[in-house]
Amino acid sequence: MFRNQYDTDVTVWSPEGRLLQVEYAMESVKQGSACVGLRSDTTCVLGALKRSVSELSSHQKKLLEIDDHIACGIAGLTADARSLAKYMQTECLNHKYVYGTPIPPHQLMADLADKHQRTTQIYVRRPFGVGLLISSVDSRGVPHLYQTCPSGNLYEFYASAIGARSQSARTYLEKHYETFATCSTDQLIVHALQALAGCVSGDDELTVDNGSIAIVGKDQSFTLIEGDALKPYIDQLEQKADNDDEEGEEEKESEAMET
Amino acid sequence: MFRNQYDTDVTVWSPEGRLLQVEYAMESVKQGSACVGLRSDTTCVLGALKRSVSELSSHQKKLLEIDDHIACGIAGLTADARSLAKYMQTECLNHKYVYGTPIPPHQLMADLADKHQRTTQIYVRRPFGVGLLISSVDSRGVPHLYQTCPSGNLYEFYASAIGARSQSARTYLEKHYETFATCSTDQLIVHALQALAGCVSGDDELTVDNGSIAIVGKDQSFTLIEGDALKPYIDQLEQKADNDDEEGEEEKESEAMET
Amino acid sequence: MFRNQYDTDVTVWSPEGRLLQVEYAMESVKQGSACVGLRSDTTCVLGALKRSVSELSSHQKKLLEIDDHIACGIAGLTADARSLAKYMQTECLNHKYVYGTPIPPHQLMADLADKHQRTTQIYVRRPFGVGLLISSVDSRGVPHLYQTCPSGNLYEFYASAIGARSQSARTYLEKHYETFATCSTDQLIVHALQALAGCVSGDDELTVDNGSIAIVGKDQSFTLIEGDALKPYIDQLEQKADNDDEEGEEEKESEAMET
Amino acid sequence: MFRNQYDTDVTVWSPEGRLLQVEYAMESVKQGSACVGLRSDTTCVLGALKRSVSELSSHQKKLLEIDDHIACGIAGLTADARSLAKYMQTECLNHKYVYGTPIPPHQLMADLADKHQRTTQIYVRRPFGVGLLISSVDSRGVPHLYQTCPSGNLYEFYASAIGARSQSARTYLEKHYETFATCSTDQLIVHALQALAGCVSGDDELTVDNGSIAIVGKDQSFTLIEGDALKPYIDQLEQKADNDDEEGEEEKESEAMET
Amino acid sequence: MFRNQYDTDVTVWSPEGRLLQVEYAMESVKQGSACVGLRSDTTCVLGALKRSVSELSSHQKKLLEIDDHIACGIAGLTADARSLAKYMQTECLNHKYVYGTPIPPHQLMADLADKHQRTTQIYVRRPFGVGLLISSVDSRGVPHLYQTCPSGNLYEFYASAIGARSQSARTYLEKHYETFATCSTDQLIVHALQALAGCVSGDDELTVDNGSIAIVGKDQSFTLIEGDALKPYIDQLEQKADNDDEEGEEEKESEAMET
Amino acid sequence: MFRNQYDTDVTVWSPEGRLLQVEYAMESVKQGSACVGLRSDTTCVLGALKRSVSELSSHQKKLLEIDDHIACGIAGLTADARSLAKYMQTECLNHKYVYGTPIPPHQLMADLADKHQRTTQIYVRRPFGVGLLISSVDSRGVPHLYQTCPSGNLYEFYASAIGARSQSARTYLEKHYETFATCSTDQLIVHALQALAGCVSGDDELTVDNGSIAIVGKDQSFTLIEGDALKPYIDQLEQKADNDDEEGEEEKESEAMET
Amino acid sequence: MFRNQYDTDVTVWSPEGRLLQVEYAMESVKQGSACVGLRSDTTCVLGALKRSVSELSSHQKKLLEIDDHIACGIAGLTADARSLAKYMQTECLNHKYVYGTPIPPHQLMADLADKHQRTTQIYVRRPFGVGLLISSVDSRGVPHLYQTCPSGNLYEFYASAIGARSQSARTYLEKHYETFATCSTDQLIVHALQALAGCVSGDDELTVDNGSIAIVGKDQSFTLIEGDALKPYIDQLEQKADNDDEEGEEEKESEAMET
């Protein structure tokens, strides 16, 4: 297809009714290291592969605390993600200050999605180049797993995975997600790590250094499990599996901008 | 036709007196999953096909409550639709707060259409890439079915369908709409599902999972019928019919920007 | 002529001293369905052909009440027309509120024409793609028929017609307009319908469904005549006449931007 | 000359030190119907050819009252002229309100010329496409005839003519202007009509319908002479003269932007 | 040289470190009719050639009173000059109002030069297309002759000439300027006219109609000498001299933007 | 790759999901002279190579005091760096004034990264062309070494090096960083200089003139070591080592915009 | 190199990490007439070649008083320089007014450099086309010589020279600068003139007319030495020296934007 004419401005429709700049921004998400999310009936677990830019650096934080009951995993442009995370943290504080209660997750999600949407319609900005997995627990203790993307779309998932080589993780999650509802937190963590293990690039491995787990749950405030605390779970992982033959399906998910 | 020169800016007329960017945005509506609406003398029913981006996700909401007496079905860019829905919900709340009565549907529609129109005339924005079917009941209990499109046009319909493969649904509705006036709510629902059934893509089917029905009526506040509640109606559906040979007519409707 | 360079921006003159974007917007008026206006010494009558986007929709409103003493017929982009009508209605309300008297039609017209003019001189907007026929009665009971066009020009007419195939109607009006001054309202309506009949496209006909008449007069507030009420007048219509050989003249009228 | 590069933006100089967009706007003036002005020691007379867009319309107003002591004749884009006239009328009212005296003509002229100049220097606007002849009487009863053009230049004339075929009128005025100082008002009117007569296009004629005269003078408030009141003067006109061989000189006047 | 890329925007440097748009604006100055200035130890004299756009018009004013002690001669775009003159007049009035004393000429000059400079650095404006010769007397009675140009540069001269064919005048002034210091006002006027005489185009002549002289001096408020008052001085003029062979040097002066 | 279309605007995504303008700005960092940073458990040391534009100039400052407990080393566009340093100094002062305590380093870093991020998303600005190494001590006395880059990314390092030929320094730091935790301040300084020595361009050498060291630590306010004070440390340096064969790896670090 | 794509906008990075518009602006500095600066331990001397646009004009001021203790020499676009000088003068006055003490030179320099930096990052402005040499004395009586350039960089020098043919002066200064610290003011002036002499263009000479010296020092307020006062120093000058063979090195200095 000849895309030249319609793909350098976010306020310009292509003749096929597509916003190409938004689709390009989605490519940025696919290049971030993988992030997975899954939930039982009481708990929501995020897992992520941390990258380090060099041997000398700490690993980049991939799982952020937004509030006691909300966590956020990122894939894509880190600077954009940090800016969005800060926005969410401020919204949470404001809500607590004004109403005295934690912000309802769905309300924060609606505001966040709107913030994305505006960058896809107004001339002077580019769309955010980041996808977010957001785990949360609402006021009744029910966990929710949300996913945003550069288009401003918002999805609720039973389980999901975004970022580089995430198709492998999605395949794993699709095989097992029906069993998650009644899993214990420990079981969920092992599932998350198992899914992540498939996203590690060829000659690397999931370790206590590059793995990271964040939990929010019914009676469980935001908890980050990294480093040695992660060791018992890593030890339970099965063999790294079938993540090679499925790469071809990768595009399917991110382009679904319409409903 | 050589469109290059006049189709990258919404503030530029083509020599034929057309706004090509608005027409491109209309293409986005045609790619959304189908949405139908129809009404009797007392009740207005919306039906929609929900898409799910993957096995792991919930189905996307397609029918939204705007107010007790107003519902909204969407086809096109979800993020734009959500932003417009939020606008309408706020308008309804403001009207209730200021006047103490529900907003008259035609007034909300006029404001909404104006909001669309502005994006087609001012430089720094793109037209919304979404079509809306809005069912409502006015203060005398009379139901109205409105349709908006990216051009800012506003139509009132006896029955309508928008989105992918919606020509099939329109054909069904044209055959039967003269009987709708006296239908019971249950009959309207079955008609809506029957129309929707023709819009399902080739190897798929209308089920309790992807179907969705929303009702507003004279003495009936907004009610959503999904999942198991939908089962009795699905069971009454006839065979999926003649949706193949009519695709060619699809363009007719959406390009009618002038009166 | 090679127009490329000067026709994509409303703030750019062509070397011939023309504003090509304004002329393109005028093309949009020619594509709207026809609208006619004519007046006697006491009454002003508008007539319009209503289009319906499908069998399922109501016909689009073409004749709008602006105030008790002002009516408006539109040809062109509906969304722009609605936005302008809303502006006029608000102006009328404001004038009544501030001065306690109906707005003098010529004053409303001057404000409206200015609103058009600004879109032809300032960078960030496009010209409106709509022509309006506005019938009104001033404080002395004298009827006026105004016409606006995208250039911001304002004309006063004895009788006029705009929109698709309107040349036929103009020819009819030119033949008879000298007799209008003393016509009764009923005679004016028949003249309006007769003129409209020539604007119906080839295989269609003027009926009680697609015809519409609006009256304002000395002692006559805005009155809309549609549907069955229109029947007695339709019945008096002569045969559809000579609208084929005159299409070639169609451009003459709308390009007259200078005086 | 290769003008392409420097002629689409009013804020861009051509390498020859010209503003081509301003020159293009001047072309618009040459396409308006003719307008002439001349003055004696006590009176200033404007004359204009009114165009009508069709047999059905009133003739367009070409001579406007700005204030009791100021009249304005226009050639070019009507919508721009009306917008400028409104500006002048408001300035006159404001001056009267603030100082209790009529605005001095030269002050109004300076403000008007500045309003033009700004559109030739600032990015977001186009130059006005209209030339104005403004007749006025100052506080000592001395008449002045001013001419503006799109460049923002302002000239004072003994007599002048602008618009289509105005070269003929200028030739006439140059032959006779030395006698104007002591003419009676009636004689001035006949001179104005005589000059106008040469500007009528080939197969047309100056009549009481398309002619128009406006007078302001020492003890003479703005007076418009049209229709039957114009008859006695038309009857005195000589034969239509020599307006054919001089068209070639037409460009001379309007391009003189520098002094 | 290949200038295309860097010469359509005033905010863009060419690779040679030049602002081509500013240089183009300087061309506009060279096309205005000539203006000369010279001063003795007590008096500053400006002389100008007035152009008239036609036989019917008054000659354009070329020498303007800014204040009692400041006069201004212009060459280039008249509309820009008038706008700048108005700015200076307002500054003079403000200074008098605030401080009760005439504005010091060098302070007005600094403000004026800054006003020019801004148009050469900010995106939305073009540089002024006019050069000014400004004669003034400071509070100690010392005369100053300033010259501005579109670049925003400001020069102080013993004597200068700008506009079309001004090289001839400059040659004359260079020959005689050393004698000016002790000249009487009458002698300065004759020198100014003598210099101007060389700037008249080939088949024209310096007369009481197109010549104009303005004087400000130690005990001499702004005085304009035109028409018959100019006759005694014109009569003293020598033969028109050597203005033909020196045109080639014309560019030298105006391009000196750097120091 | 064909980059032309997507690399001249920071608000435009390339089809691969990259922001090319941000990557180009990163090139600017690689051209600045080298800067290294490393820390023990109590102290953070920055080292930099100062460049002098000529023999006649002082060396440019490369290590700046932001606050008592925060220092900053720069590589890239000096003017941008100075502007960012000023911003940070102001933030530190404000925090002290409002809260009475030194600003927590991580909070300053988050604000700084946000300031970068905005220049990569909003139309009217370019990304900053500078990389910063920021050493700091938090309220518990723990040292932190941060690095920013034009993308708005923020990294925490054990040790790092940026600027021209910095790969050599990174190689040195990777070999020894495990021993840094327990180093004395003097040892850290020697390590920093040793790393820097590899970054000096071919025919030059690390001396007391071009070397510079800045220290912040647990009980150590910002201290700059330059000139003669640096002599004892320079004397301890080993031979300049292996910085030639590793240049090829240089790009690796700076392009890691995603996590 | 192919520079076309990245060199017309100051907010666009070239793929090599350069801001080409800033480099082009630097060319403007090289075209200004030369300016030198040097300092002893107590005094700072600026010298400049004044250009005159014609025999008739005064020489342009090249050395400006900013405050009692600050002087400024300019090379490049005069209008930009004057605008910056005015800015500095205002800052000095404000500081004196607010704090009652002279502004510390380094603080003024930081503000000035920031003013430059903003024009290199924000869309609507071009970089200043001028280089400044600024001599100053701080509150302890220590002289400082600063140099700014269009990039917003700020250098402190022992001695420096900018403008056309300034390489010759720099060569002279490099030979002798080590002796300047203990020079008397008279000796510094002779050194400055000696350096300047090498910058005079081929067939010209340094004279009391085109030379100019400005002094600020420990107990020495701003003093300008021009005309006859300069004679004794000019008489001491040696022969004009070796400025021909070194032109090739000219570019070296001004492009050093990074540190």
UniProtKB/TrEMBL annotation, chains A, B, C, D, E, F, G:
It is found in: Cytoplasm; Nucleus. One of its GO terms (molecular function) is hydrolase activity. Its main location: cytoplasm. Residues 243-259 have a biased composition (Acidic residues). SMART domains: Proteasome_A_N (SM00948). SUPFAM superfamilies: N-terminal nucleophile aminohydrolases (Ntn hydrolases). Pfam families: Proteasome, Proteasome_A_N. InterPro entries: Ntn_hydrolases_N, Proteasome_alpha, Proteasome_alpha-type, Proteasome_alpha1, Proteasome_asu_N, Proteasome_sua/b. GO terms for cellular component: cytoplasm; nucleus; proteasome core complex, alpha-subunit complex. One of its GO terms (biological process) is ubiquitin-dependent protein catabolic process. Keywords: Cytoplasm, Hydrolase, Nucleus, Proteasome. Residues 6-28 form the Proteasome alpha-type subunits domain. Residues 235-259 are annotated as: Disordered. Belongs to the peptidase T1A family. The 26S proteasome consists of a 20S proteasome core and two 19S regulatory subunits. This is Proteasome subunit alpha type.
